[in-house]
Amino acid sequence: MKARTCNIYARAQSNSEEIATKAREFIDAFVASVMGSTEGLCFAATGSVGRREALEASDLDLVPIARDGALLEKWQPHDSRLREELAKHLNIKVSKGEELTKACSLAELMLPEKIGVKEETSAELTKRVLLLTESIHVGGGMSIEEARASLLEAYGSEHRTSGRHVLSLCNDIARYYKTLCIEYIPRVLDPDKDWCTRNIKLRHSRKFWYFSNMMSVATLAEKHPHGDGEFKKAVLDAFAKSPTERLADAVMERQPLGLGRLLETYGNFLDFMSRPENRRALAEVVHDERYEMKPGNPFPAMKFNSDLLHAEIMAILEEAGGSVRNRVIGWFML
């Protein structure tokens, strides 16, 4: 990669880790003061911080996780104040705890009857998938690694072909991605919604995240064909990394040049989104005027960049080995 691109990823990694470290110190002190202990609580950052892609204009999506319902109930009265004080401490926007970042119970997320059935809500699906695939620990006595291991175990036995383990996990990751794409559509029709920012994120960060998960799981399944404990450990190790590192582990050996081209294109998106003025410009794009080549309209350039990213993704997938490609298509795309 070019030096400029390497610098973008280094800045994103460093900034994300700095936010996580500062948040962890503040959260642990706050929780200890109001609860007496941090035991049984885990505070996870999802979104750009969880993906280690947070640059100068990024927010913090905070998801508190309690080991069980009783501890969750005990924590909830303190949740809003923590978010308000943490936002002031970090001097960045922190999620308010509505729906997708609302405090939750790990025991509730693990219930078999809530995985892939009608009783499951969109928020529960989202939290389970994001905590598994794009989270970083930012406080609490329960580690995010413990939470991930519990969530993965909830998908069933280690015998993938007999039903519920990795195939159910892949199905949930695919369902979440498809839900994002479907829920985007109403934003185009609502003049009060920022459709353009959502569109560009779907074309870049969400597509990149989805592709990294597909290639990682499929590649690890090829290395561990019996779906044993080593396979589950390898999946958890992969999910502990950023999507960029996860994808690099999966394709570097076979397709280093394709990976480099893809990371160059994705780096352009990260650099663009790091600038507040660019985010403001996206928010002001009128849907019916999105392709007009006029000053102040960033949509055509970013749409072109997303087309390049898609082309590089398809090239990597096309050149992947047959077993990997078949798993990607069968597990995630059908």
Structure characterization notes:
By secondary structure, the protein is mostly helical. Helices cover 65% and strands 5% of the residues. The protein has helices at 3-35, 47-50, 69-90, 106-109, 122-133, 144-153, 166-189, 195-223, 229-239, 243-251, 256-273, 276-283, 299-319, 322-333, and strands at residues 41-46, 61-66, 104-105, 136-137. Strands 3-2-1-4 form a four-stranded mixed β-sheet, sandwiched between helices. Helix 3 (69-90) links the parallel strand 2 (61-66) and strand 3. The chain starts with a helix and ends with a helix.
Secondary-structure blueprint:
Layout: H1 3-35, E1 41-46, H2 47-50, E2 61-66, H3 69-90, E3 104-105, H4 106-109, H5 122-133, E4 136-137, H6 144-153, H7 166-189, H8 195-223, H9 229-239, H10 243-251, H11 256-273, H12 276-283, H13 299-319, H14 322-333
Parallel strand pairs: 2-3
Antiparallel strand pairs: 1-2, 1-4
Helix pairs in contact: 1-3, 1-11, 5-7, 7-8, 8-9, 8-10, 8-13, 8-14, 11-13
Task: For this entry, give a set of tags.
mainly alpha, 334 residues, four-stranded mixed β-sheet, globular
Instruction: Please tell me the overall pLDDT.
Output: 92
| SS-derived structural category | mainly alpha
Q: How can the largest sheet be summarized?
A: 4 strands, mixed
Low-confidence stretches: 157-164
The helix tally amounts to 14
Helix content: 55-70%
Radius of gyration: 20 Å
Total strands: 4
Terminal-residue CA separation: 33 Å
Neighbour order of strands in the largest sheet: 3-2-1-4
Strand content: under 5%
SSE succession: HEHEHEHHEHHHHHHHHH
* Shape label: globular
